[in-house]
Amino acid sequence: MGNYKKLWYWLLGILLVTFTLLGYLGSDVYRNAPPIPTEVKVATTGEVLMTREDILQGQSAWQSTGGMQNGSIFGHGAYQAPDWTADWLHRESITWLNLASQEKFGITFDKANEEQKAILEAAAKKEYRTNTIDSNEAITISPRRAQAMKEVAKYYHALYGDDASLNSTRESYAMKSNTLADPARRDKLVNFFFWSTWVASAERPGKEVTYTNNWPHEPIIGNVPSVENVMWSIISVVVLIAGIGLLVWGWAFSTKHETEPVAPTIDPISTFKLTPSQKALGKYAFLTVALFAFQMFMGGAVAHYTVEGQTFYGIELSKWFPYSLLRTWHLQSAVLWIAAGFLTAGLFLAPIVNGGKDPKGQALGVNVLFVALLVVTVGSFIGNYLAIAGQMPAELNFMLGHQGYEYLDLGRLWQFALFLGIAFWLFLMARCLVGAFKQGGDKNLLALFTASVVAIGLFYGSGLFYGERSNIAVMEYWRWWVVHLWVEGFFEVFATAAMAFIFSSMGLVSLRTATTASLVSACLFMLGGVPGTFHHLYFTGATTPIVAVGASFSALEVVPLVVLGYEAYEHWSLRTRAAWMEKLRWPLMFFVAVAFWNMIGAGVFGFMINTPIALFYLQGLNTTAVHAHSALFGVYGFLALGFVLLVVRYLRPNFVFSNGVMKLAFWALNLGLAGMVLSSLLPIGLFQFHESVNVGLWSARSEEFLQQDFLENLRWIRTISDVLFIIGGLSAGLEICKAVFLHRAPKN
């Protein structure tokens, strides 16, 4: 550890404390997950309406339709169709009120006077929030609620089928006709939707909040922000201010301004002869930009579906490629191409840290891994298609077709194969890293880089810890280990260590400066990032301690982002350190964009929806998409493209990127992304926010609200930004493809 002993102790201590929190409260998720009842029965007659098996079969049926890619459950999923939890809850409570009003006053609820409505709503609140689950985990409901359930179930049965009276609604929701063609499976589906509604309306035993901490906002039954929701929101803001203050103080008193080394006259990395494994990376660069292009076109089509619903400029595309399928491919290809970009960077750096040589058989391993990535990509996409088209046998859907969960949509077999592929990448990296440790010199930065490689190789496997029938609260816990912890945590540390290693190897920054900055950054990222995972679980069936930890630590995630302007300046200034740095201008520009979007997308737009009180109203609205687009592509997308541009620069040293084309690519991507957010996603999300606070989440996601002319116009306006973004992406991809296919790698 040498001169970095204190920093290593800090990092190890932070990891020990934060993962202890993550694990201990994870056991709380298991212990206190909302129960799936053994049966739901009618109080007076004893009629059994559904069993646990019926609910679990309904969950499987929901997964096979695309799950979170077709509306959402507990606020997590697609934004076009309703959140089924909130939608069912409102429809059922209104039906219940009408039935009660007819029984008591002989009129429908809307015709009752204010006094009568107050009496009815008080009765509804009491019935819905009273938890009637018994020691045998059986739920008893009133005959009136049973009747209301049956009436609402008819609507969903028709909606997921081909009832002609709901054609317009399906178009508004971007749902194809016969989304779930089998009537028997539709019968099961409605059981799962009811269960999610019961979880969101019944109070947790011994508490005055529901299993979902009173989410979604539904005034009829008293689903409003809890005391804890407000309290921990205020505390999280205080923690944020304190964290920023401490960071500024620490920065001011501990920063030592070292004289940077004199840049060498030639690029040190260019003095290494390309190894066979490095020469094999051209196809990885192509795969990365090919999947990126595919993702862009899928995103454009998905955005267009939000306007036309089932057609693409008049072409009835949804017959073959419905919204849920294209959104699945859009998100899954994003994970794949960004991961491919990071894998490419790692495989390029591995021989360099090993002294410029390959271990025996390294090139073969790189080629085998590439084939494996292709097989997983094609196989998972075909499985997605067959599942959503209804051509996958129900018993095979989870394993080969569609898991139904955002970002982990691919069938379990393909997910496991991808994990094996990433683990094989770890093996290829380890062969070089072990050799590097045998060489002399300071190995602290190498140790941090190695630790991040190991984490990336192993932590994707956390997505395998739930099953087809796992309680959705448990599934969400593990899903966010992948989406938040794997991507936003360990990818961040890998990127920081990799860039520090690259710049120090180039002689542009001292090894001491690079190592210190990387260790400090890792401490800051992990301190907020690991327990900050819980901010995704506020309303998915978790308890108050999880809300408290998630709110407090997710505020700390924003703290290191306040100094990213300085990081951007450092990257920008490197271009003038040496004449040969001009050849690396565009990778550096993409790294500058990473710092900017990390501050805006992850910082500003992330914290906008992070506090419990904000997320109570914003979860499942377009404001979530604002954060998702600006953080996922703005940070990790630009980073992956920057890595690929950097690698291609060394694979094809005689190729010169066209400044005109790359300038178009850079600015079109940035302006296109900003346009998507500012001209469409953010204003739509803010209008929804107002509706969610004023009326309820069900209304903010309803057909009547989202199909208003002015909101539809905002979605049309987004087309301009989408086209600009696609032009930028294709321009960058064109330059990379020209380098890979039209120029030969130098002969050793």
TrEMBL record:
SUPFAM superfamilies, per the entry: Cytochrome c oxidase subunit I-like
UniProt-listed InterPro entries: Cyt_c_oxase-like_su1_sf (IPR036927), Cyt_C_Oxase_1 (IPR000883), NorB_cytochrome_c-like (IPR054309)
GO biological process terms on file: aerobic respiration
Annotated keywords: Membrane, Transmembrane, Transmembrane helix
A cellular component term, taken from the record's GO annotations: membrane
Superkingdom in the source lineage: Bacteria
Transmembrane segments: 7-26, 230-252, 284-307, 329-352, 364-388, 413-434, 446-466, 478-503, 515-534, 546-566, 586-609, 629-652, 664-689, 723-742
GO terms assigned for molecular function: cytochrome-c oxidase activity; heme binding
Pfam families registered for this protein in UniProt: COX1, NorB_cytochrome_c-like
Sequence ranges assigned to domain Nitric oxide reductase subunit B cytochrome c-like in this UniProt record: 42-217
PANTHER family recorded: CYTOCHROME B SUBUNIT OF NITRIC OXIDE REDUCTASE (PTHR10422:SF38), CYTOCHROME C OXIDASE SUBUNIT 1 (PTHR10422)
Name this polypeptide is given: Nitric oxide reductase
Native species: Pelistega indica
